[in-house]
Amino acid sequence: MSKLPFSFYQNDDVNDLAVQLLGKRLFTRIDGQLTAGIIVETEAYKGVEDKASHAYGGRYTDRTKVMYENGGLSYVYLCYGIHHLFNVVTAPKETPHAVLIRGLEPLTGVDLMMERRGMSVLKPNITAGPGALAKAMGIDRLLNAKDLTGEEIWIEEAASDWQSAEIVAGPRIGVDYAADHALLPWRYYLKGNKYVSKPNS
DNA sequence: CGCCCGATCTGCT
DNA sequence: GCAGATCGGGCGG
């Protein structure tokens, strides 16, 4: 066990941190049931100056307030009324940066992930995409604002064979509304991995 | 208080 | 390729 420490999440360069999260292992233990996957796709959301961020312009509400906490907490919210999306809050207190986890390669508890997804045959879309992976990992709003060094949801160091995977950067997905920030290449993924939500762009 | 729409996924065409 | 699902947040009145 090599859980990432509190200090890892205090980095205030959210793009650097989004890249560093690739290859690391996300775990949840829900009702005693362990599931885990390797992070293969992330997106950086750069706080108050990023038009695609929920904290753009300093917006501070019941939903977004956790983004302003110290790095190392979860930010889970409901999107389109259906999907829960999981983010890692980063940077020191008052700097509302976050990294959206968009793709995961299943590692542990795959049978349970399939059951949660209602799948009888394992296919890459089990955890390709932020809504899909949250469902597979059992992540919902009850896991919002959790300490990522705790016992319910946490991230561990990458296995050695994942530290040299090739990384690609491209525009973020589904943020056309962010106007001149929509094309910033703040999405990162492992080249060729099956569990990346969209292979191109 | 009411209206609009979203960091998406699925299934049908 | 595209519409529908589904509901809470955010903002204007």
Strand elements, count: 8
| CATH architecture assignment | Roll
Report the CATH C-level class: Alpha Beta
Overall structural class, as computed from helix and strand content, comes to: alpha+beta
SSE ordering: HEEEEEHHEEE
Tell me the distance between the termini: 35 Å
Strand residues, percent: 25-35%
Biggest β-sheet strands, sense, barrel: 8 strands, antiparallel
Radius of gyration from the alpha-carbon trace, in angstroms: 15 Å
Rough outline: globular
Determine the number of helices (DSSP H or I, runs of at least 4 residues): 3
The residue-averaged pLDDT reads 95
CATH superfamily: Methylpurine-DNA glycosylase (MPG)
Helix content: 10-25%
Q: Low-confidence stretches at least 5 residues in length (pLDDT < 50)? A: none
The total number of structural domains is 1
The CATH topology turns out to be 3-methyladenine DNA Glycosylase, Chain A
Pfam family, one: Pur_DNA_glyco
Enzyme class: hydrolase
Protein name: Putative 3-methyladenine DNA glycosylase
EC number: 3.2.2.-
